Structure formats: structure tokens, C-alpha cells
Amino acid sequence: MIKNHPFIDGNKRIGTHAMLIFLALNSITLSYNDEDLIDIILKVASNQANESNLYQWIENHQE
User: What is the pTM assigned to this prediction?
Assistant: First the structure.
């Protein structure tokens, strides 16, 4: 969602919430601060981080 821009506005916000809800529904709890989350999402949106980088970020922030 973040990179495909299905919506006029809010793609990063909706993509982020969708990811967090998906993880929560699958009993994956993350520990992060807002700045860390914003950083990885902006990197994904600007092609500075790929899918593998996002998976690694999730693994590094699991409780």
C-alpha cells in the first residue's frame, strides 16, 4: 500500500496501520518508538528500504 498509492492521500498511514494490525492479529508484538517506525516507513516509501529490510526491522523490534 505504501508504494502502490491506492489512495489519493494517507497511503503511508494506512499501510502502517494495516501492517501493525496484521502483526497484532498474528500475535506479533512490537516494541518501538514513533521515530523508529516513521523512519522505516519513510525509507520503504522512498525505496531506501525493501521488503527484506522491513522484515528485519520487524524481527529486531519484536518483544
Answer: 0.84
